[in-house]
Amino acid sequence: MKPKITLKDIAKELDVSISTVSKALKNSKEISKETKDKIKAFAKFYNYRPNNIALSLKNKRTKNIGVVIPDIVHHFFTTVFRGIEKYANEMGYNVIVCISDESFDKEVINMEMLANGSIDGFILSLSAETQKKNDFTHLKELLDQGIPIVLFDRITAEIECDKVVLNDFEIAREAVSHFIATGSKKIALITTERYFNVSESRKEGYVAALKTNEIELDNRLILTLPHDRDNTNLITEFFQHNEIEAILCVNEMFAVQCMSIIQQLGYAVPEDISIIGFTDGILSRYSSPKLSTIAQHGEKMGELAAKLLINRMESVQMVEEPFKTEVINATLIKRGSTIN
Question: Is the pLDDT of residue 1 over 50?
Fold first, then answer.
């Protein structure tokens, strides 16, 4: 009897990507006929069956929800998970969590593993690599099989499903407007690569606030940092070569790191430079001075994501409800790193 194989096994054996295998088995026009024939022949020989148990999930409920988050380092994702688990448990569901580690392959593998009869639906935030690749085949396959998905925070317009997002544009604009109201004009933005949808929305809010207040955009004051490496030298050089009065950081890690570096360079916070960072986490509350932050209300976001998923899974209507995109309103929390 041949052993059961997965997409990962086929990809490794044929030296192609998991995405290529998935697309080939779906007869995608993006894959050459030669590659499709080779992959299909291999899959047939080993009797590969994609999520065969999952196809019967509508009739056989597991009362389990699969959650896939990019990492557990950022405080935000842990609070979202807490909210998901709280609501799901109250409704009689268990939660199984997996970490993609910002990897497209791990995201695909985790979802394939859980979909094989383990869960009734998914809640996830897209990994960095998935957003960079712009490849959502694995999500479309699950939806085609009747497995509901809720995306939160990091989302894509290419997938039609329920979503929960933050008002990133509006709250970034509010934060920058606060800097301006307290006398700052040379305002920097510390952000991540543009394929992160949340970072782009926050950047747009930053630009809008400058425009509204008739402050000319200076692209030299926008620092884009890689999400997956030590950025100490890049940040240090940025502050050594630019005159800056305030900083908006798109995450807590960047904000705390920036505050440490500018203090080492001899600047006082907030007298010389004010700072606001996204995510009201533990680091923000114990930094010196305490960091002004944008509270993303992760637990509320998690509860709402779980509610959307469970409502869709338990819907008995013949005609499915239209998909919803719910928006969480963030809160600016002013502490010691800004002039209030």
Answer: no
Q: How far apart are CA 318 and CA 162, in angstroms?
A: 18
Q: What predicted TM-score, i.e. pTM, was given to this entire model?
A: 0.82
Q: Are 119 and 96 in contact (CB under 8 A)?
A: yes
Gap between the Cα atoms of 340 and 336, Å rounded:
8
In 3D space, the residue among 151, 129, 130, 153 whose CA is nearest the CA of residue 79 turns out to be 153
Region of 68 on the Ramachandran plot (φ > 0 left; ψ -120 to 50 alpha; else beta): beta
Q: How far apart are CA 79 and CA 337, in angstroms?
A: 23
pLDDT for 181 equals 97
Q: Which tens digit of pLDDT belongs to each residue from 106-139?
A: 999 999 889 887 899 999 999 999 999 999 999 9
Cis peptide bond N-terminal to 148, omega within 30 = no
How crowded is residue 111: how many other Cβ atoms within 10 Å of its Cβ? 24
Residue 129 to residues 26, 100, 238, 244, Cα–Cα distance (Å): 22, 10, 26, 32
Cα(290)–Cα(337) distance, integer angstroms: 6
